[in-house]
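Input (structure):
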């Protein structure tokens, strides 16, 4: 996800940033090198965490679909 956020800001491929990360560079260093504010990455991660926390439990939703059959 972080590679995609940085790619959106720089118009480069997310794969480019994944390769940098796999080479040992931190996400913070990658963002800094590409002039992407780390706060933007943190904000996106917070949004994702909030979304996942508010998502219904998969086990609960599958129970409901079985009951409807």
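Output (sequence):
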């Amino acid at each position: 996800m972080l590679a995609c956020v940085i790619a959106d800001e720089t118009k480069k491929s997310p794969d480019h940033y994944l390769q940098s990360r796999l080479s040992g560079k931190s996400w913070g260093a990658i963002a800094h090198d590409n002039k992407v504010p780390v706060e933007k990455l943190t904000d996106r991660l917070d949004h994702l965490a909030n979304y996942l926390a508010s998502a219904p439990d998969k086990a609960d939703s599958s129970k409901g679909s079985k009951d409807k059959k």
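Notes: The chain has one domain: 2-54. The CA atoms of residues 3 and 33 lie 13 Å apart.
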